[in-house]
Structure formats: structure tokens, C-alpha cells
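Example complex used in Figure S2.
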Amino acid sequence: MKKIILISFIFFIPLLPGLSVLAADATQAANQKQINDLKDRLATKVAELRQLQRKAIFGTVKAVSASTATIETKTKDVKIELTDDIKIAQIIKGTRTKLTADNLDKGDQVAVFGEFDATLDLLKAKVIFIQAAPTQRIAGMVTDTSKADFTLTVKTPEGKNYIVDIETVTKIAVWTADKGITKGGFSKVTVGDTIHVIGMAAKTDDRISASRILDLGNLTGTAPAATASPTVKPTP
Amino acid sequence: MNKDALLATLIGLGIGLVITGALLLGPTITKSISFPKFSFSFGSPKQKPVVAPASAPKDFFVSIDSPLADDIASKEELLVSGKTLANGMIVIQGPKDEDVVKVKGDGVYAGKITLAEGKNDITVTAYKDAKQVTQTVTVYYTPEEF
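Predicted assembly (382 residues):
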């Protein structure tokens, strides 16, 4: 009996390396197949994303034709395709008005929404919004107020002084720790307050026509010393 | 056939099957078993646990974590969040309104603003100890579906 068992073992010993190689190969092949499948799926997804990607750009219309337009952005010129189902809109006299591609003119500032085709380097425009002139923003400390001219002098942290014109349409809000943001007025803005201003740039670069002002109050607890402010000229 | 030879063949076949099974299933079974780890470092001084430095930047800063630059927002109302120094104050300024928020003890802030159609520049200004620092991010919004 012992002999039989010994013979059986001797029979199978030469087979062992072959069997182990076979087993390892089978496992490796299965793993490799899984990796390859994953790679293929990933590559397909990346290709899809590269090919068509939702994108928005902002710039000035440089050229426009029946089916394409060129938008000059901060970094480069982008060619856009004007699709048949394109939606174009603009705020005219406070109302969102729907327009057509014919209303698109050279020099318009537009935000273009669409699908970017990386292979063609082309933005297939779906929505174009014609924007108004960009606003200007400043933040700083009030160094002077003029009730006669309805102006504020604001000094920014960079040291630049601005004259802020308070218009009839200017909305002034005041922030306090306990009440949050509440409606304010020109008379509540005092020297030493820190304010944030949004408005339109005036003819000179040191003047802003304010559309909105947020007064944060006196954050430093001290009133600033009188500074040389730009010459105040009443607005025409 | 000899009785002994038949028996030897059967035993050999049985052993072969057991070995083949072990080889095929062995790698899978051994992966699921976690063996104890032994270290044989003798006489080496005990290493002190490495403590990551607390994220307390010395300079005054403000970062915008959300939204990402040039993102296309899906809703008119947008949540702006990020980090700055603890216990400061943040002013988030959008095209239509502002939000003023107190910064939590961990330096995290979050506030809401309303977007306008088109390009929206969002300015985040942090105030602390009479100092201010500003970051800006641009997002796009349209109520149209595309």
C-alpha cells in the first residue's frame, strides 16, 4: 500500500509546476482582461467628454456671419457655430427680450453657452446673452462725504482715492452684526466707514457712478486722517 | 487491470484534484486571510508619531472652494464657500446682491448670492483686524436649458 501511495506521488510531482503556471496564467489573464476593459471604458468616457463639453465664454463679438461668429475673449479668439435652435436674449429697458442671430452685432459683449467640440476647436452655441457694459467695484474706507454734491470719497487699501457719485437710483444698504443687511441712506454713511461700491465707471478713472453701496460701518474703530482727495466736480 | 494499479490511479487522481484545487483557489483564499505582521527591528529608538502641522497659515488669506472658476451654475441662487482665518468677517458680492457672514472657528465660511444672466464676477472680501483681502471668481448662469 505504501508503495502505491509513493508511486502516485511520484507521478504527480512533475505535474505540479505545470499546474501552478496554468493557475497563475488563468488569474493573470482574468485580471488583465478586467484592466483592459476598464481602460477602454475610461478612454471612451474621456473621448466623449473631450469631444462635447458644456462650456461658457465671455467676450466681444469680433466678426459675425450667418452661421458662425468669432468672439474675442481675454485670452484668445473663439469661433462659435450659430445653430438653428440658438436662443439669444438681452435685457432691454429692464425686460429680458428674446432676439435672433440677426440682432448680433460686431462689438457686442456676450456670454455664450454651448457645447465645446475639442476636436474641431469649435463652440456650438446654444444660448447667447448680450450683456450690458461691465460694472466697476471698489471697497475701502470713506474719507470724506459731501452732502452738497452727493459724493463720497473712498480710499482703497491700495491707497487710491475714488469719488463715488450717489445717484437717485443708488441703493444703499447698511450691515450691522445684530440686524444684518438693512436699507440705509446717504446720511447714514459716515467718515471712517468701510464700504463696498458697485457702479459704472465715469469719464475719469477715479470716479464711479454708484448703483449699489454696502456700508459695513467703522471696522477699525478710528476715523481716518484727512487725505488728499480728487477734485470734486459736480456731475452734469 | 491489477487491483493495486487501479487503487493507485484513483489515489493519484484524488491527490491531483486536491493539489489543482489548492493552486486554483489558493491565491484567492490567501488574499482574504490577513496574516499578522512581524517586525524585527532590534535596538532602534522609538520613532515619534509624525504630527501634521495644523493648518494655521500665518498670512491673511481668503480662498473660494465653491463655485469653481468658469463654472456654469444651474440655479439663480448660488452658494459661495471657502476658507479664511478664523473669526473674521466675509463680504460676498455678486452682481445683484451681497451677503455678509461671520467666519466660524475653523475658518470655513459660506454665503448665498443671486446670480444675473450671463457672466457673473463674484468678489469675496475677508476682514480681520482692520486688514482686508479679496478673491474673485467668475461663474456663468442662464435660465435657458441647453
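The mean pLDDT of chain A is 87. The radius of gyration of chain A is 34 Å.
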